[in-house]
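REQUEST ID: PR-0412
SUBMITTED BY: lab tech R.K.
PRIORITY: routine
TASK: structure prediction, single protein chain
INPUT:
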Amino acid sequence: MKVSFMITTFLVYFLIACYFVVERTLRKGEQALSLQPGSSDRNSSYMMWANGLFSILLVLLAPILNFYNLGSWNNIYVSWIGIIVMISGLVIRYWAAQTLGKFYTRTLQIVEEHQIIDIGLYSIIRHPGYLGVFIMTIGAGLAVTNWIVLLITVITSFVSCAYRIYVEEEMLEGTFGEDYKVYKATTWRMIPLVY
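STATUS: complete
OUTPUT:
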């Protein structure tokens, strides 16, 4: 049983590493790779990065919490479900980034020839990339089988994504005006039928 938990823990760390590789390889051009927030960013990028680092730290600390039986439920089936959920989130994030192409940037900014993308997942959800990260967060919390880690990471991830979406939509509405309002009226922010 302990070997299975070691394998799933390794897979969690591996999938987090894959996330960073995907993030780096899918960004094309200097503007997409820039860490300099645009004028409309309102610290949302810093909030997302801080939350990401905090969540990763909690996931890394989960085996220690589990060793001391703090929030641990030690269910290997839940752990494997978490791995599957993480993979699903990574696939959604990849798909969303691939669809955005050159408009996929690290910070909130309008790039040259920017346009509203409304194909693929974007025809249903306005922010599938954030949904992918959120799903990965849920998966990681499940995979490390610790309800404290799951609860804290899900709450902080949702709050940071919600703020980022609010700021991003304000920027896009200011840029695209009525076209973006029409797009908003026919799609969900991040979670279909919920949010």
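NOTES: The chain has seven helices and no strands.
REVIEWED BY: pending
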